Amino acid sequence: MDITQTFYDNLAPHYDKLFLDWQSATQEQAQILSRLLQNYGFDTSARILDCACGIGTQAIGLAARGYSVTASDISSGALAEAKKRANAGQVTVQFKHADFCALAETFAEPFDVVLVMDNALPHMLSRNALDSAIQSITGQLSPGGILIASIRDYDALLENKPPYSPPYIHKTGQGQRVSFQTWTWKDDHYTLVQYIIDDADTLQISKFECEYRATRRKELSELLFAHGCQDVHWLFPEETGFYQPIVIAKK
After folding, report:
1. With contact defined as beta carbons under 8 Å apart, do 36 and 248 qualify?
2. How far is CA 241 from CA 28, 32, 48, 126, in A?
3. Which of 52, 66, 67, 207 could cross-link to 120 by cystine, CB 3.0-4.6 Å?
4. How many Å is the Cα radius of gyration of the chain?
């Protein structure tokens, strides 16, 4: 099992602690994505694949709005958590275990929309690995379909290579929860350590480690064009309300 799978398997039971209110976040993000889909002519009849679904933050929110959603992930732990949350919300999502670098091994049919949200693509630690992922993901799109992905604003981050992210402090019924990340850089790679500190009746500190490659928008756009996308458009948080830059690529 590689570092990415281990990271998300271990983080899955705690992932919702990164939000003030995970349930509200699913609804807010689904509203943002629904608006983007409508702008590209897709309604709830669109067949959607969320190929890096994690615990279901986007997939469950969209399914609750009436979309037909299939969700996959490389992490068994994240999938188990997502299934539990979909069942609890009485939301229908078809879940599959799949590596987004080899989607054709799991899915025979194409989709109208493929999602790759929450900085999943920068887990590809070389241009060749990213190229393979983009080839796999765009290969799962129907003609005229769209890819929607989000990544950190690495064009800005690479200028200063900050050593940490600002902490999030959330009030809870028992005290407060603090979450933050440290980033240790080596060229355009960085090791991320996610800390979650629960200051409740008993102090609990959780720590999770993973590696990323800072991916510039130009590189990702070039690969999308190289694999058959005819239009690639970037949108920023001030335009969408989403917390990361979003790229939409039409096949």
Report:
1. yes
2. 9, 7, 21, 30
3. 52
4. 18
Encoded tokens for 40 = 């590209």
Cβ atoms < 10 Å from Cβ of 229: 21
**pTM for the structure as a whole:** 0.97
Instruction: Note whether 95 and 83 are within 8 A (CB).
Output: yes
Tokens at 26, concatenated: 């699913």
Q: Which residue is listed with tokens 């969408």?
A: 240
Contact between 250 and 41 (Cβ < 8 Å) = no
Please name every residue paired with 149 in a beta bridge, in sequence order, or none if there are none. 116, 247
**Which pLDDT tens digit goes with each residue over 172-224?**
888 899 999 999 999 999 999 999 999 887 899 999 999 999 999 999 999 99
Query: What is the reported pLDDT for 1?
Result: 54
The tens digit of pLDDT for each residue in 6-16 reads 999 999 999 99
Pairing of strands 141-150, 246-250: antiparallel
Q: Which amino acid is at 183?
A: W
Q: What is the pLDDT of residues 63-80, one digit of tens each?
A: 999 999 999 999 999 999
Task: Determine the pLDDT at residue 51.
Answer: 98
162's CB contacts (< 8 A; 6+ apart) are 183
What is the average per-residue pLDDT within 51-60?
98
Report in angstroms the alpha-carbon separations of 125 from 121, 191, 192, 235: 9, 11, 13, 24
Which positions ≥6 away from 51 have C-beta within 8 Å? 72, 73, 98, 100, 103, 114, 115, 116, 137, 140
